[in-house]
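In response to reviewer comment 3 from the previous cycle, which asked for concrete evidence that the modeling workflow produces usable outputs, we include below a single protein chain processed end to end. The sequence was submitted unchanged, and the resulting structure tokens are shown without manual editing.
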Amino acid sequence: MTLLTILLLAGITFLTRYLFLHPSLPVKLGPKMEHFLSFSAPAVLTAIWVPIIFVRDGQLAISPQNPYLISASIAVLLALKFKNVYLTLGASLTVFALLKITF
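The workflow returned the following structure tokens.
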């Protein structure tokens, strides 16, 4: 049953994307809809990372002992300063691993 659900959802996702991406199909979005949809990726990503960083055991976790918060803060600062994905990823993952080992 789970495999069937995954396959059906994959099919639905593929078809909805295919309708908008295939050049020979007559479906076109207007500029207002394209502008509206430009907010969907940041919204989804924010909905994923905010609970990971700020919530522990159902409680708000804003403390110096939260390795997720410290690593995310370092990642934001590095990304703003250097604009290098690999440096940001490597440094923040290293800091996170070191913090997980020490805490």
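The mean pLDDT is 93. We consider this sufficient to address the reviewer's concern, and the full set will be provided in the supplementary archive.
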